[in-house]
User: Fold 8-oxo-dGTP pyrophosphatase MutT (NUDIX family) from Actinoplanes digitatis.
Amino acid sequence: MDDDGRIFFQRRSAQRKLFPNAWDIVGGHLEPGETVGDALGREIFEETGWRLSVVLGQVGEYSYTGEDGLERHETDFLVRVDGDLARPRLEAGKHTEYRWLGPGELAVLDESAEINDGMIRRIAEDGFVVLHTLGM
Assistant:
């Protein structure tokens, strides 16, 4: 999240096998021997160039089956980062654009609802509930 209480989203490239051209959040997979905190920091840096500052809270746990037929389980967190929030370094070939969205601006995420069954919109809504709970 940024200082204005908005959450960061990025669009996956059309070449991605899973959820092509869909809005997404920063994320990825745990590598062998990696802690969740280490993975959060690594993925944030790889996808944006920012550094993890603090984990504010867990947003939720979600399960889904991708177009490849594999069932996946993810845990999402709301975090603060250090770096130039106006200039993320999007991961080449993986993401094409970004947006910071407030709670009243989530309709843009519905563009991806058919691709991801509205999951990113649900995660965003859950993220704003966490923000509200934290008094932010």
Residues 6 and 102 are 4 Å apart (CA to CA). The chain has one domain: 7-133.
